[in-house]
Design brief:
globular, mainly beta, 7 strands, five-stranded mixed barrel
Length: 103
């Protein structure tokens, strides 16, 4: 299990656990390789229910995953990866990853 505070740009095959502490509004974006429209939303994931800059990261969710999770949910991401967008670290579930509620 990788701690959120240990995440760095370019990491792959991550197992990360945390609490959803905030969400942004859902946006519609156009696909890079097709002209289809997709829903995307930023969530903020924290190691604790009290986020700090050191223990939280932006989590990007797409389509049906957006509706599945709410603020306060404790989630686990399997096979996640990190990227950067506008100089900000992002955690992604991606096509081959999985996000689920913790028991």
């Amino acid at each position: 299990m990788t701690k959120i505070s240990e995440l760095k740009i370019g990491m792959k095959n991550l197992l990360v656990e945390g609490y959803i502490v905030e969400t942004d509004t859902v946006r519609i974006v156009q696909g890079r390789y097709d002209n289809n429209e997709y829903k995307v939303c930023k969530f903020w994931l924290s190691e604790t229910k009290k986020p700090t800059k050191e223990n939280s990261v932006t989590l990007i969710l797409w389509e049906s995953d957006i509706e599945r999770f709410r603020i306060g949910d404790h989630v686990k991401i399997e096979n996640g990866y990190t990227t950067t967008f506008q100089d900000s670290l992002q955690l992604n579930v991606g096509k081959y990853g999985k996000i689920m509620l913790c028991a």
